[in-house]
């Protein structure tokens, strides 16, 4: 079997269509289809079957796709051992991240990578629904993803997952708000307010929805945006209240708005690094992940941020 042809099965399993596989690999759809047919003839078993206008892998195709993952991972591990023997961590590491994770991790990450001049970090901002981050691992070496407390992490048999930090979510209110002088609030205190929040199914929105279910009161949404600094500005100028991530927003809160912990509801988001197993085995990727883990230790469960 040709390793490259096996890799096509893996890409088809991850991406779902021949057209998307072709676009990702810089091939024409007809060339991809031809290679799949050649592999099918070689093994003598149907690997791909038609479903409507598209195709999907058969059980045999999925088995070989899984083998392709193990093969590519073993090759990456062998290359990593050789690079480690030579004392080299080199190459481009592509990272997909969302805006607030960039604020938390990218400055310190770049500082830590000063000791690894052979690694080129290529960072893209990609903010989306929490269920869509896993798919980005097909195109990036590392995906920084976040999910609400109530959501399970992606399937570990498909992706390597490295937990980085659980960031508490606090209620942000204007300085002149009647609750601003309190040390904390309950769901009942705030659920009836006008809320500035993120798009539907983003982690902060999922938490707000769970709060509303607990209270039995639908939230009154006055504005939605993915841009946390805009949410902060709207809160500071009295246009509503919001759930904001504590470590990300705390430094900007001084003399502008108050962050109040929720005492009767577990509100938080988990930030994790997602990777394909073969990409996780690359030495340069491992160096970047180690740096992310080291940077995550700055954020302590007690709410303090250290400079270490």
Concise synopsis of the structure shown:
InterPro entries: ArsR-like_HTH (IPR011991), HTH-type_LysR_regulators (IPR050950), LysR_HTH_N (IPR000847), LysR_subst-bd (IPR005119), WH-like_DNA-bd_sf (IPR036388), WH_DNA-bd_sf (IPR036390). The chain is of the alpha/beta class.
Your description of this structure?
The protein is of the alpha/beta class. The chain has eleven helices and eleven strands. Strands 3, 4, 5, 6, 9, 10 and 11 form a seven-stranded mixed sheet that branches. A two-stranded antiparallel sheet has the order 1-2. The mean pLDDT is 91. Keywords: DNA-binding, Transcription, Transcription regulation. Belongs to the LysR transcriptional regulatory family. One of its GO terms (molecular function) is DNA binding. This is DNA-binding transcriptional LysR family regulator.
Q: State the assembly state of the protein chains.
A: single chain
Helical amount: 40-55%
Characterize the overall form: globular
Which spans have pLDDT < 50 for at least 5 consecutive residues? none
What is the level-2 CATH architecture name of the largest domain? Answer: 3-Layer(aba) Sandwich
Instruction: Could you tell me the CATH topology label of the largest domain.
Output: D-Maltodextrin-Binding Protein, domain 2
Radius of gyration: 23 Å
Question: What is the succession of H and E elements?
Answer: HHHEEHEHEEEHEHEHEHEEHH
CATH uppermost class of the largest domain: Alpha Beta
CATH superfamily of the largest domain: Periplasmic binding protein-like II
Biggest sheet features: 7 strands, mixed
Family: Belongs to the LysR transcriptional regulatory family.
Protein name: DNA-binding transcriptional LysR family regulator
GO molecular function: DNA binding
Domain HTH lysR-type: 1-58
């Amino acid at each position: 079997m040709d390793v490259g042809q096996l890799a096509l099965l893996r890409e088809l399993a991850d991406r779902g269509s021949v057209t998307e596989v072709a676009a990702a690999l810089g091939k024409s759809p007809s060339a991809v289809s031809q290679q799949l047919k050649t592999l099918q003839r070689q093994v003598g078993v149907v690997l791909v079957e038609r479903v409507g206008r598209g195709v999907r892998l058969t059980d045999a195709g999925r088995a070989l796709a899984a083998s392709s993952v193990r093969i590519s991972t073993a090759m990456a591990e062998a290359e990593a051992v050789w690079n480690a023997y030579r004392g080299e961590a080199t190459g481009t590491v592509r990272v997909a991240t969302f805006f607030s994770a960039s604020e938390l991790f990218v400055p310190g990450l770049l500082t830590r990578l000063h000791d690894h001049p052979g690694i080129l970090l290529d960072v893209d901002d990609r903010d989306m629904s929490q269920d869509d981050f896993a798919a980005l691992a097909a195109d990036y070496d590392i995906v920084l993803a976040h999910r609400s407390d109530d959501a399970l992490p992606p399937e570990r048999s498909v992706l390597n997952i490295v937990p980085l930090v659980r960031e508490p979510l606090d209620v942000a209110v204007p300085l002149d708000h009647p609750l601003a002088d309190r040390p904390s609030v309950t769901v009942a205190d705030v659920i009836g307010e006008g809320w500035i929040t993120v798009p539907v199914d983003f982690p902060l929105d999922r938490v707000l929805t769970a709060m509303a279910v607990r209270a039995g009161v639908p939230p009154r949404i006055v504005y939605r945006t993915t841009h946390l600094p805009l949410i902060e500005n709207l809160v500071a100028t009295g246009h509503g209240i919001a759930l904001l991530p504590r470590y990300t927003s705390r430094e900007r809160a001084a003399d502008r708005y108050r962050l109040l912990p929720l005492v009767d509801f577990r509100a938080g988001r988990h930030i994790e690094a997602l990777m394909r197993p073969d990409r996780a085995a690359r030495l340069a990727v491992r160096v970047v992940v180690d740096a992310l883990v080291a940077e995550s230790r700055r954020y302590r469960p007690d709410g303090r941020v250290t400079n270490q």
